[in-house]
Amino acid sequence: MLQVDEVPVYQPVLTANPYQPHLARIVRIYKMVPDNYLFTLRFLDDDLAMSFTYRPGQFLMLSIPGVGEAPISISSSPSRPGVLEICVRRVGRVTNALYRLKTNDVVGVRGPYGNGFPIEQMTGSDVLLAAGGLGMAPLRSLVWYALDNREKFNRIVLMYGAKNPGEMLFREELVSLVDRTDMTCLLTVDADPTGTWQNHVGLLPTMFDHAELDPPRTYAAVCGPPVVYKYILERLLKLGFSKDRILMSLERRMKCGVGKCGHCSVGYKYTCLHGPIFTYWDAINLPEMI
Ligand SMILES: Cc1cc2nc3c(=O)[nH]c(=O)nc-3n(C[C@H](O)[C@H](O)[C@H](O)COP(=O)(O)OP(=O)(O)OC[C@H]3O[C@@H](n4cnc5c(N)ncnc54)[C@H](O)[C@@H]3O)c2cc1C
Ligand code: FES
To answer: 188 has which bridge partners?
Structure first.
C-alpha cells in the first residue's frame, strides 16, 4: 500500500524565485467567530486564479508585505476553482496584520505546499472526518471535495465539536449539511448557554455513538487541538481502526515551507514536505510528533 508521502501531490506554482509570492486580492472577509475570520482570496492574475489547483489538506504560505509569512491551510475545495478560502485565527504578527487589512487589499500567496490527504487511497472507502475547533480549517476542504465528488467515496461521516454554538466555525454551512441524505453530519457543542442549539450537546467523542462506523472499510481524517487527538485516537483504536487508515493533520513551526530551512523537521521528516498529513503509524514512529 502507498504511504501518504508517496502519493503524487500538486506542486507549487513556481516563479523564478521559489520564495516569491503571487499577489492575491482579499475579495471577502467573513467574520465567522471573533478572532476566526474566513478570508476569500483571488489571484490578481486571472489565468493563475483559474489554474491554481491543490489537494485537500495542503497549505499555503500567506505573506503580508513588510510583516512576514505564516503557513495557513486551504479551507476551500479544489473542486471550486477561482478563489481560495482561508480560515485564520488571530494569534501573532502576521495574523494580526491580516486582520488590519480590508476587502480589496492585496496579500502574497505561495504554494500549495505539503502532501495533502491521499485521495487516491481513500477513493472507494468510507470516510470519517473528525475535527475540533480550528481543526475544521483543513478538513472543510476535504468535506466539500468529497461532496462535490460524491461518486468517489462510499459513506461520508463528519463529526465536529466546538465549545459552544457561538464558537463553531462554518456553523451555518455545517448545520445545512445535517439534513443531507448523502452524508452523516454530527455537530456537537460542549455546552449550550443559549439553549437554542438544535444539534448535539456533549464532548466530540460521544458522537461515535451515532456514527455507525465500519472500521475496516473507513479512512479517518482527524484534526484539532491535542485533546481532540488524544480522545479521538483512543476511540478509533478501540474500534479497531488500523493505524495506517488514521490520517492526522499536524502542525509544526515553519519558515520556508519548501524543505530547505529545517525548522519543521521531526526525526528524518520535514512536516512541510512529508506532512502536514501523517498516518497515525507515521506519527507514532517519529519522535515527539504527537
Ligand atoms: C501546516 C499548517 C497549517 C496551518 N493552518 C492554519 C489555519 O488554517 N489557520 C490558522 O489560523 N492557523 C494555521 N496554522 C497556524 C499558523 O501558521 C500559526 O498560528 C502562525 O504562527 C501564525 O502566524 P503569526 O505571525 O500571526 O503568529 P506568531 O507571531 O508566529 O505567533 C503565533 C503564536 O506562537 C507564539 N510564538 C511566537 N513566537 C514564538 C516562539 N519563538 N516560540 C514559541 N511560541 C512563539 C505566539 O505567542 C503566538 O501564540 C497552520 C500552521 C501550519 C504549520
Ligand atoms: S519549513 Fe523549512 S524545511 Fe519545512
So the answer is: 161, 200
What is the number of the ligand 1 atom nearest to the C-alpha of 98? 26
- CA–centroid distance, 63 to ligand 1, in Å, is 13
Peptide bond before 276: cis, by omega within 30 degrees of 0?
A: yes
SS3 144: helix
| Residue 263 CB–ligand 2 contact under 6 Å | yes
Closest ligand 1 atom number to CA of residue 252: 53
Cα of 160 to ligand 1 centre, how many Å?
22
User: Residues with Cβ within 6 A of ligand 1?
Assistant: 59, 68, 70-73, 87-89, 91-95, 134, 137, 251-252, 254, 276
pLDDT tens digits along 156-212? 999 999 999 999 999 999 999 999 999 999 999 999 998 999 999 999 999 999 999
The pTM of this model reads 0.94
Determine the residue of 32, 40, 73, 255 to mutate for testing ligand 1's pocket, defined as the one with the most ligand atoms within 8 A of the Cβ atom.
73
24 and 108 in contact (C-beta within 8 Å)? yes
* Contact residues for 92 (Cβ-Cβ < 8 A; gap 6+): 70
Helix (H, G, I), strand (E, B) or coil at 257: coil
| Greatest alpha-carbon span in the chain | 56
Q: Going edge to edge, which strands form the sheet with 22-33?
A: 68-73, 59-64, 106-113, 22-33, 36-43, 84-89
Inform me whether the pLDDT recorded for 33 exceeds 50: yes
φ/ψ of residue 200, rounded to 5: -80, 150
